[in-house]
Structure formats: structure tokens, C-alpha cells
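Posting for a labmate who doesn't have an account.
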Amino acid sequence: MSPLGENNAPLEASYLVSVFKRDSDKQSVLLNATGRWKVTFVSWNDLPVLTGKQSGKGSTVLRLGDQASRLEVSYKRSGKGDSFGGRIFTVSDNPVIFGNTDSFTETQKVDLPGVIAISTNGSWSLTPKR
């Protein structure tokens, strides 16, 4: 359930760090890379607000603008050893943390709008529901 991930090159992904009130103001990021690389740090407040069904592959951070009480999450493993870790942060300040090592479709109780961090190499889709 690590918020960070790893994969063979090339890798383009987004990760979410330092989200809890108890987190230190001083943070570190470790990078182990061969060849050229680039890291960009942004606030989740600078992410574009997305609405409706979202889908993709790999690790990412999304800012969901829908008013929803449930979020249907579907995940398909990319292969042996892959897993899915999801962390949802919403207006209630009650984070939802979930995941699985097998492919799944499940519904999480949420109070969107909010931000979701996905850590995986596999494919996923998110469908907000009222």
C-alpha cells in the first residue's frame, strides 16, 4: 500500500506524498534511476478538476470534482506481482485507503469532491456515483 511505486523505464507517473496533518513539513523523495530523468513537484490544488468516469494505466493522482457519495473502482492487473493501492482524500477529512493484489471491481463510500492517488502498473477506471 505504498503511495509510491516503481517500474522499469520508461516510467511516467504521478504520486501523492505528505497528505496527513501529522506529516512533517520536511519531506524527502528517493529516486533510483539509470539514464535521464525528470521530477516535477506540484500541489494537488494545481491539478485540473476532472468530472465523470476516468480511466487509465499506471500510477497517477487525480482531482475529482464530482459531487458523489460512492466511487466505483475497477482494476486489472498488468501481470504477476502487480497490485493496486488507492488513497482517497475528500472534503470530510476521512481518507479511504484500499487495494488488492487481484483484479477487482468494488465501490468505495466517499464524499467527493476530492483527490485520489492510485499506485499500480495495471489498468483502472473510476466512476463517481451519487
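Reply:
Got it, the C-alpha cells are right above this. DSSP finds no helices and seven strands in the chain.
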